[in-house]
Structure formats: C-alpha cells, structure tokens
C-alpha cells in the first residue's frame, strides 16, 4: 500500500483531493523548483551579448551567495557557511566559466543551454567518483548551476500576482505566502507536485474556494503553459488535454457541483441543530481578518480559529502592535456578539515567516515552532498579546495558545499574559478582564495530560490536522505518506474521546478546529463524542449543517459505540460510508459526482 500517483492511459492523474470543485482551463506552469531550459541557436552577432548575460548572472549569483554568507556569519559559523564557501569557489571554476562561454561561441547556442550542457558534463564526471564525500560535491555544482540559470532568466521571473488570463497554476510547490499573493481574479485552481490534504496551501485553497489537487509528484514535468487541463479537486483528478467527450463530462459535473453549492447556500441562514433539537455551534477558521464576510455569508456563528500567522506572512516584517490591534478589532466588531478565537502565532512546519523562521532546522515540525517560538521570542509574543487584549475590549475574544505539549508551557504563557494585563491596567488601557483562555490539543502529550491541562484553561480546541500528524507520525504535507494520514484511525478516535471526556469532567468546552470537522461523515462521530462546537473552513459549513439537521443523536451514539469497537481505519471508514449511504443517499451522490 503506497501513495503512488495513479495514471490511466488517457492522461488522467489521481492524487490528493485538496480543495473541492472543478476547474477547466489552461495551465500556467510556475517553474520554481526546476528550471526548464530550451536550447536554441543564436547568430554570430548575438554571441557577445549572450556571453555578457552569462557573466552577469554569475556575478549576481556571487553577490547573492555573499549576502547569504554575511547573514549566516552573524549567527554561527555553521556548516551552511562552508557550503556557501564551496559554492563561491565553484563560481570561479575555470571549466564552468570557460567551458560555458566557449560553448556559446563555438556552438552558437543560448547561455542557459550552454551552461546546462556543461553541468551535464560535471554530473557525468562526478557520478564516476568512488569517494562518497567527493561525489556529493556534485550536488553543490548542481545548486550553483540552478542559481546561475535562475539569474539568467532573471528578468522573466514569474509573478503569480499579475496573470493575463484565467489560469490553473501548476507548480512543484506553493508556499502559503505564494497562495496569498495570487491574483484571485485570474487563478481558478491549482495543482502541485508536493503536499497533502492538510498542508497549509491546501487549507488556503479551501478558504479561497479554489479547486486544488496536490501531491502529484511529477506533474510539473508533464505540462507546459497554455496546455488544456481539467482539475477535479473533490476527487483528486487531473486531466491533461481532454478529448471532447471528457470535456463534456466534466462540464456537466461542474454544472452539477455548482448547482449543489447553490442549494447548500439555502442552509446558511438556518440554525445549526440536529433533527431532534441538539444545538451545535458551527464557526469558521480564517487566515486573515478580512475573511470575516466570507465566514458570515456562509452562516458561521463566530470565528473558532483565526490563524494569526498569516498576518505575519503577508509582509516582510512582523506586523506592529497597532497594525495587529486594528486588524483584530475590526474583526471582533464585525463578528460581535459572536466570539472570535484568536490563536497566537503558530509558525513552523510548512508556514514560514521571513526573519522569524529557522528554515534550516533538520526537523521543523518538531522544532522551535508555534508556542515554543513565542516563549523563546518573548518580545514578539508580548506585542501580540497586548494587541489581542486591547481588541478584547471591543467584543467577545477568546485567546488560544497553539501546540501545547504540557502544563508548564500553559503556566508560562499565563504568567506572561498576567504581566501584560498588569501593564495594561497601569496604562489604563481597556481589555476584557474575564477573557477566556484556551489551548489547542494537537500533540500526543496533550492528549495524555488532558485531565491536568483542563484544570489550567477555560477551553480546549482540538487541532486534528496536527494531532493526526503527531499521533500517527505522518507528515501532513508529505504526499508520499498521505495514504497513512487517516482521521478515522482507531488511535485518533480514542484520542478525541479522551479529550472530550476530560473536558466534560472538568466542565470546560471542547471544540474541534481541524479540517476533520468539515467532513460531514466525521462530524457525525465528533458530535456523538460530545463536540458540540466545530470550527472549519467557511466552504464546509453549510454542507455539515445540512447533514446534522437531518441526523438524530440516538443514531450517532449507536454509530459511535459500533466504530469504537473496530480495529482498523479501513473498517471504520467502511462503516461510516455505509451509514452515510443509508441516511443521506442524495447528498452522497452529490459528493460523488
Ligand atoms: C490543526 O492543527 O488542526 C489546526 C487547526 O491548526 P493548523 O492547521 O493551523 O496547524
Ligand atoms: Mg495545528
């Protein structure tokens, strides 16, 4: 059992369904990772200019490497420092420099192609070396070569914030920052080689309502800009150059999908409760305060998770206290009288912030990320806490700390919070003295300690995206292990039950804010476990609400008892599927379109 991308003969690829919907259009290939070089002939008069371009790119590469080295030397004479040294030496290599310029002149070809040929000669030579250390130096040459190639291309750097036509972006990978900068008018979907269902790029695609398929491994080498493409983000299918019947079939699917979405809109205004009257609170997860309207239009009764780190990712420097305060305040006022749960900075994993992230950590998912970084960089943390507290005077704010792994961390956070509160009192700045303080449960240790943690806080919010990653030891953004990322794994269900039971016993609320809540099938069991608060991507709200409104709690309890007896994720998934088929055949059919 592996996650290899499946392909059929007709050019249909199947990978991770990251964000639902169907997009039909043209490819825009964003070539970040690998540079594709096209070789072409030049005439004798162009040779000098092409050689100049090459030398210019080498010089630019030298400057870039020196700058990086300068930054590194401020910190430590790390291994990276010496790697850059090696790369600088390669830039002076006679064979690389003279070899490339000679090829440009003798063969009369473009600079990138000449360099590419020289790099191949290097590669062949290095492959024959027996000494492993020396052989590995070949990768330094490749890296330097890539850098020069990029600089040759320099002026043609692709910008996804200004596209001329409606396009489906195909990229090796997209960072959440790339996704934020996308031209929302022109981008109608995206496809990537890397990624899993809960990588942050996928989460953002859902927030933006863009269909996306990720984890296709090598799709970037199969496409060219302008190629016809269909993506089905609900099923994870990508079709290249579809024939007429296939196109027709997908146009029909798209029409039905959009029709069903419109039908779901009618549920936005209706109350969230089961058929037998159990009330459920459905809230939205958002990345930026500006998304408040989308959440409200989709019927959210509050913001269950504001991922504040996206405010930090949008700029080159962290937002000031005032900027944050104004953003939070506007959001809180808009959502009032419903609550807004503001989570403190949660960077790390696949979310990087310039200046803050330690990008060269060997194991970033387990590194100095999230609350650990806030406790380490206290000035940054204090600024954010001040901004959140000040905003709490303008509505209902709940403060939440991410990635907590033990009681000591909660106490450390609360201590700093108490300091800030005292400071604000002294300054006569208003804030909510009774602000609810909660934590995210997303590490196995927090599950084991749920009873102790429940004594320290006012609420729990379960981050199933990370909880699944850490409990099952499966990187949430790695396409190669996406098949192991199983929300209904028995271990996850037991963990969720433990958390809910501990919260109930301590008399605090427990909410689910991971992507799991947005799957109607899972929402049935979450509710049966006692999670009456769920927060999700705005686009999942009405779908979940529709299902819950037709559901009876009694059936939920029977279902839960049954699946808790099962031993594998496959058995549980099969049971859940047949339950949904039995109770919601029409909706199931729509999801299956
Ligand atoms: C989670 O981990 O489930 C969560 C909601 O937080 P994030 O996806 O931002 O890590
Ligand atoms: Mg998380």
Query: What is the percentage of strand-forming residues?
Result: 5-15%
Briefly note the CATH topology name of the largest domain: TIM Barrel
| Net shape | globular
Mean pLDDT: 88
Structural class estimated from helices and strands: alpha/beta
Oligomeric form:
single chain
Summarize it.
This protein has 593 residues and is α/β, with parallel strands linked by helices.
What report would you give on this structure?
- With 593 residues, the protein is α/β, with parallel strands linked by helices.
- It has three domains: 6-32 and 159-243, Glucose Oxidase, domain 1, CATH 3.50.30.10; 44-153, Enzyme I, Chain A, domain 2; 270-591, TIM Barrel.
- The protein is 49% helix and 14% strand.
- The chain has 23 helices and 17 strands.
- The chain has helices at residues 47-75, 79-91, 94-108, 111-127, 132-153, 176-181, 200-208, 244-265, 292-297, 309-313, 321-335, 370-376, 378-391, 407-426, 444-448, 450-454, 464-472, 490-506, 520-529, 541-549, 553-564, 569-583, 585-592; strands spanning 6-7, 12-14, 16-19, 22-30, 167-171, 187-192, 212-214, 228-232, 237-240, 281-286, 303-307, 339-343, 396-401, 436-441, 459-462, 509-512, 533-537.
- The strands form two sheets. It has a nine-stranded mixed sheet.
- Helix 19 (520-529) packs across helix 21.
- The model has no long low-confidence stretch (mean pLDDT 88).
- Bound molecules: phosphoenolpyruvate and magnesium ion (MG).
- Phosphoenolpyruvate (PEP) binds at residues 305, 307, 346, 442, 463-466, 513-514.
